[in-house]
Amino acid sequence: MLRRRWLTVAVTLAAGTTLGLALPHLGAVAQSSPPSSPPAAMVHIDGATLAAKGAGVTVDLSVTCPTNAQFAFLSTQVVERNGNGVASGVGGTQTNIPCTGSTTTTTVTVPATSPGRAFKKGPALITATLSFCDFSVPSNPCTSVADSQTVDITR
Length: 155
Known about the structure:
- This protein has one helix at about 1-20; strands spanning about 40-50, 55-65, 70-80, 85-90, 105-110, 120-135, 140-155.
- By secondary structure, the chain is mainly β.
- Strand 1 and strand 2 (about 55-65) form a beta hairpin.
- The radius of gyration is 17 Å and the shape is elongated.
């Protein structure tokens, strides 16, 4: 039973890591020289609160998406030790992030996906990734930026 839980955590972490690492390299088959001025993009984790008595975590984010991007979305992963196990989950935006070049705030709700493990108040490793695409750059239209930090989940 414990082995199955660890396998679930490992698969969840592997999927999030693969997505985070693969998106910046989509279309990098014939990489050309980088643009003269890189787009100003950033994501910052501002805080996290418990949702639905630990069934999820609401993560507060500050996001800047460059004006030349036509498509952008957020993916957020939360991993927290809970007793002898780990509570984890992955969530994302269901709508396109506005790419105005200005910093905006948003929230992402991350549901707990570990069997029998809820999130709790306390420290958790949170990784937020902003992925965006500029289709006017044919050789490498999509890229991402990320923020990863230990954050205290509050109630």
